Amino acid sequence: MRTTILPGLLACATVLTAVQQVSAQQAKVPFDGMDLTWINGQNRQKNFPLQLADKNGETILTGTVLLDGYFNYNFARPKDNTQTISASMGRSNEFQVNQASIGIESNYKNIIGRLWLQTGSMTHIVQEADGSVTRGRNTGTGNLKFIREAAGGYHFNVKYGLNIEMGIFMSYIGLESYVLQENWSYQRSMVCDFTPFYFQGARAQFFPSKKFKTELWLLNGWQSYNSWSKNIGLGNSNYYRPSENVQIVANFYYGNDTHVAGATSLSKVHRFHHDNSFVARYFKNAASKGISQAAFSINNHYGFQTGDGVKAKDNYMAGTSIAHRVWFNRNKMALTLRGDYVTNPGGYLAFTPAAPSVQPNDYDKAIASGKNLKMGQFTATWDIMPNDFFTLRFEYAHRNSNVPYFAGPGGTTSQTGFTSDPVDPAWVPDLRKSENRVIVSVNFRL
User: Fold this and answer.
1) Mean pLDDT of all residues in the chain?
2) Which pLDDT tens digit goes with each residue over 112-166?
3) How many CB atoms lie within 10 A of CB 248?
4) Ramachandran region, residue 304 (left: φ > 0; alpha: ψ -120 to 50; beta: rest)
5) How many CA atoms lie within 13 A of 325 on its CB side?
6) Residue 285, phi then psi, degrees to nearest 5
């Protein structure tokens, strides 16, 4: 969902890298001359107007402003207006500011610096799910959740570039971005929505050739500010672009990220995750008023947990997302059709459709946790993009599952729909096997 060259600008790949800030006499530029703005999970901006340069014309700072809002109409009309089973949006039948973000980046004279600040409803959904902050003291999400990305490092002129950085980064796992405007659809595929959006740690990015990048990551844990155990997580990301029309990615993660309730020792459960993707553009005619581009993407995920009594055959996640996108009228409009499927026996990555605190004791905990989940999703997305800085998006989303998993009219909070009211012992969350929604979103970005 999110591998980057410098992910403060992009969540999956970027054309603005530390290498590009070094003079042409000193640096070889990876992916030089490639137009990568069409890729799923990639910022489509070609120009960055908020730049400050020195007297020699070398960029000192690049600023970015982002505002994303939506109206998510759920046909079930849950009484609590809670949108469940989504990290892309958390409310239904309401207007919401999903993400507001400002940031600056500097790659001046090989020094890498980046600070992105954020707020909005998506921040609450993603950051507040970090259970690692309950381990020990002097910890919490309050001091970090408004930082989308913050990192410092240095670029070395080795081969086509070597970057060493430390801080908070957008996740390298998955094809689709944390920034929804960069994706071909507003509701992320479930294989990407189930996987991390940020890491805290250090990374080394190495470009041995013009067309290949590999990264090594040392991480506190799986979408966590802190660590779950005594061990540091390990990650690896690999990008190969034989031309600007093809992108092949393979990513890996290994760590200890499961807290065993009541255990006297730290986690001995090992988590492994792998994703790979293939994205190809097979038609391009930028001047056409008809079809101006056409491309498709395939993103596959597989992961499992094992150890300390946990068996991989009962605790794994597997899924695929396939999307096809056609651009029209000089890339000012686009239609995307996407289908995805995910299964998660054990439910260790699945969303919980209702808060455990409001579920009665006789409620089926297996269903509540998404255990043995098999879920499919289809989206159709129409984008209107008059320029690089504005997107008006209309989307239809249908989802179904083998167990009751989506919010029905009765909602998933309480019998009244309010968290401030006591829960009737006889009340159970209203869960259904299918869901239909229409989403309208507006995105502004400079």
Assistant:
1) 87
2) 999 999 999 998 888 877 878 888 888 877 788 899 999 999 999 999 999 999 9
3) 15
4) beta
5) 25
6) -150, 80
